[in-house]
Amino acid sequence: MSEKKIVTADQIKKAMAAVKAQRPAYEELLGFYEKLFLAQEDTKGHIDIEPIQVPKDLLSIKLKERLPLINRADFAVDTKASEALLRKICQLAAKANEALAEAGSKVMDALHKGRLEASVLFSKILSEDDTYFDEVAQELEIDRNILVFFAYTSITPSVCLCAEQLATYLDKDTPWNKGYCPICGSLPDLSIFRGEGDRSLICSFCSYEWQALRIYCPFCDNMDQKTLHYFFSEEEKNYRVDVCDKCHKYIKTVDTRKMDHPVYHFVEQISTLHLDMLAKEQGLESGIPLCLQT
Ligand SMILES: [Zn+2]
Ligand SMILES: [Zn+2]
């Protein structure tokens, strides 16, 4: 990447302050997310995981066949650090909206009484075990999506660090140019313009950022200019929604060349929910279901 991704607490605070000033309606929601993102970044400093090894022969097949390096289930998670973060997130949720507060308190209680095992919760989010989340949410009488949200946001620091480590295996000289993440195979949830207008996509699961074609739908590989377009609001020309007429899906794009605040992908995702609403009004579907609580 031509520009270094931001990771410091100070930069998250700056990005948050800029977005709050632009969009006061988001202030309350962003208050919760700011604390969450700072807790996640802080957790990164305490993570202890072994590097994931990709054997040489397997690596050459993966690179040649354009296959992702690992499956979601293969990510290494520091259970101790993630559980501490889960507890912190439950505490932060207590000061957020009613649904989050209630779920946070029930999850804390379940952890305390041994009705919920954090390590199992983390392995199930990696293996995408929908039945587990349905059952546990029902048992604890909480919203299933909030449980998924808690689980995912708790393992995010481990997952992002694994992705950074695994990225060293990738062939930097050959652009990936695919719609799925070269690290874990997940679909992107944000598109970014940087530098000379180079486009990259950000993985919805591991946050890895990879180079992509400028006129391209990552969800159906459409490259036909006539069926790809975008819309944006006059008041915020640094954001746009890229739409594909073939699969009727969209992805939000952030143009960093028109931004005066640091770009932190999670902040951009949460502060552009109005664009998701606009897209939905037009009958469009997000390329991937958004794992966010509002
Ligand atoms: Zn990924
Ligand atoms: Zn498409």
Can you describe this structure?
- The chain starts with 8 loop residues before the first helix and ends in an 8-residue tail after the last strand.
- Helix 2 packs antiparallel against helix 4.
- It has 294 residues and is an alpha/beta fold.
- It is built from 10 helices and 7 strands.
- The protein folds into 2 domains: 125 residues, no CATH class; 99 residues, no CATH class.
- It is globular.
- Bound molecules: zinc ion (2 copies).
- The site of one zinc ion has 9 residues, from loops.
Write the layout of secondary structure elements.
Blueprint: H1 9-22, H2 27-44, H3 56-65, H4 79-93, H5 98-112, H6 118-126, H7 130-140, H8 144-166, E1 188-194, E2 198-203, E3 209-212, E4 228-233, E5 236-244, E6 249-255, H9 265-270, H10 273-281, E7 285-286
Parallel strand pairs: 1-6, 6-7
Antiparallel strand pairs: 1-2, 2-3, 4-5, 5-6
Helix pairs in contact: 1-2, 2-4, 2-8, 4-5, 4-8, 6-8
The protein binds zinc ion (2 copies).
Residues 217, 219-220, 222, 244, 246-247, 249 line the site of one zinc ion.
In short:
The chain is α/β, with parallel strands linked by helices and 294 residues long. It is 44% helix and 14% strand.
